[in-house]
Amino acid sequence: MNVIDLRSDTVTKPTKGMMDAIINAEVGDDVYQEDPSVNALEQYMADFFGMEAALFFPTGTMANQAAIKLHTQPGEQLICDKWAHVYNYEGGGASFNSGVSCKLIDGSRGMITAAQVEANINPPDFYHSPLTTLVCLENTTNKGGGACYDFAEILKIREVCDRHQLGLHLDGARLMNAIVANNESPKDYGKVFDTISVCLSKGLGTPMGTVLLGKKSLMKNALRVRKVLGGGMRQVGFMAAAGLYAMQNQVTRLSEDHNRAMDLARLLQGLEYVKFVEPTETNIVIFYLIDSISETQFMDTLEQKGVKISDMGQGKLRIVTHHDYTSEMHDAFIKVLKAYS
Ligand SMILES: *Cc1c(COP(=O)(O)O)cnc(C)c1O
Q1: Which of 35, 105, 153, 327 has the most CB atoms lying inside 10 A of its own CB?
Q2: Long-range contacts for 323-327 (Cβ within 8 Å, ≥24 apart)?
Q3: Atom 14 (ligand 1): residue with closest C-alpha?
Q4: Ligand 1, pocket-test mutation among 12, 138, 169, 171, most atoms within 8 A of CB
Q5: Ligand 1 atom closest to residue 84's alpha carbon, by position in its atom list
């Protein structure tokens, strides 16, 4: 039996169809903007979200960092949830790359409200405090357990940003999961956000790549920023072709991941050794064990049975479903969970 790896949806490998797309990709030098496969992916993503410009990045981190740079000047401040990836998991990049600080909001499952945003904007004429210029949202939330924003709240946040002249960036590493789970329109997102990053290497299953989308006025400097961050790549059309394949063939199947995650959440909820399971909406399940069982002990036992999950700290254990987690693996994992005592 293969290892059942549920640490992240980044562990996926290309499917046969994706591998064919990679091998057959037409490529060129993308630093000269001459890679037809990269250009095709960027055009496809811009059209899909109804946004003016798109740029292919090696990682989601770099795309988010570039977005922050495009929106801010050194010394300014962005607003985000306390669990935000841009604050917690990008190596301090907001301060390192852009010289900005983050005003952290105590949101709910990684999501913040329009009222919280408004209450955390520093008055622009009060020169003692940093100037607030950007709001970063995450959908779905990572540390919040794949939670999805209510789109009506996003619209309210946009309204606050307009009133205070703030940029609005979406870390959409798993935006496609939210769109599939809630049957939303990608173009609605394109209308509301100034910039959006969409990862192709999570549930969509490519080896690498994230596309940053945005308004032309902001994105005109994106090529330079990407170059500065070291993200100008050459014949990277092989990877862009994987991304285009994923967008065209591996989006609707995300609902299978969501169904399996919800199966697991329901099962865990009923097990004696589980204290609490966070609400599960997409492909991430976060749960807590009862006090008498340590996370390490539990994870070691699972690992001996061939299952890997992750420890997010503060008692949070995380399971992420993805396309390499098959129905046979699902059945086997359910047996392992039921047998644990
Ligand atoms: C994975 C992820 C990213 C990007 O991570 P990379 O590993 O750099 O691609 C950004 N935001 C969120 C919420 C993520 O989960």
Answers
A1: 35
A2: 323/12, 323/15, 323/203, 323/205, 323/250, 323/253, 323/256, 323/257, 324/5, 324/11, 324/12, 324/13, 324/205, 325/4, 325/5, 325/6, 325/257, 325/260
A3: 173
A4: 171
A5: 13
Q: Which amino acid is at 232?
A: G
Distance between Cα 84 and ligand 1 center (Å): 10
Residue located via tokens 């059209």: 47
Q: pTM for the full model?
A: 0.97
**DSSP helix, strand, coil percent of the chain (3-state; round to 5):** 45, 20, 40
**What confidence tens digit (pLDDT) does each residue in 291-306 have?**
999 999 999 999 999 9
Contact 101, 73 (CB under 8 A): no
For atom 6 of ligand 1, the residue with the nearest CA is: 60
Taking alpha carbons only, the member of 85, 70, 267, 56 closest to residue 171 is 85
Q: In a 10 Å sphere around its CB, with 0-12 CB exposed, 13-18 middle and 19+ buried, how is residue 36 labelled?
A: middle
What the block records as the tokens of 262 is 């919800």
Q: What separation in Å is there between the alpha carbon of 293 and the centre of ligand 1?
A: 30
The amino acid at residue 272 is: E
283 touches ligand 1 (CB under 6 Å):
no
* CB-ligand 1 contact for 42 (6 Å cutoff): no
For the chain, what is the total number of helices (H) and then of strands (E)? 15, 13
Ligand 1 atom 5 nearest Cα: 60
Kindly report, residue by residue over 123-152, the tens digit of the pLDDT: 999 999 999 999 999 999 999 999 999 999
CA distance 146 to 260: 14
